[in-house]
Amino acid sequence: MLASTVRNLRLKHGLLIERPLTHPQRPVGYLSVTQLVARLEAPIHWIYTRLYRSQIQVPRDPRIHLYLFPDQPEVLTLLRQLKAGTVQTVRLDKEHHDAWSFDWLRQRVLVAS
To answer: Has this prediction a pTM greater than 0.70?
Structure first.
């Protein structure tokens, strides 16, 4: 029997195949680059240019291989200051932001559990 015949019969009778998610889910409490751009009201290439030039230093998530920004007001404030030109570099790794690094680490542990 042809695969197209099986597909047509399945669709005719409303039997759908549940496919697994192709992308791992983004951890709670983090923003993707696209979401960050929407909050900052900046073009997406602005973020990627700053990442490439190391003006924004944030590690990629090792599990999903994306840049994830903590969804915290302090982070958005720092990035708005970078956009306005009042700061030159924003480092978002946990070693340089002790004020919120423990919350950041705790959220990662809670999401992984």
So the answer is: no
C-alpha radius of gyration, the chain, whole number: 20
Contact yes or no for 31/38 (Cβ under 8 A) = no
- The span from the CA of 48 to the CA of 55, in Å, is 10
Model confidence pLDDT, tens digit, residues 9-61 = 888 888 887 777 666 677 788 899 999 999 999 999 999 999 999 999 998 88
The Cα diameter of the chain in Å comes to 67
Domains and CATH numbers, the chain: 25-100 (1.10.1660)
Distance between CA atoms of 67 and 62, rounded to whole angstroms? Answer: 9
Query: What tokens appear for 15 in the block?
Result: 């039997």
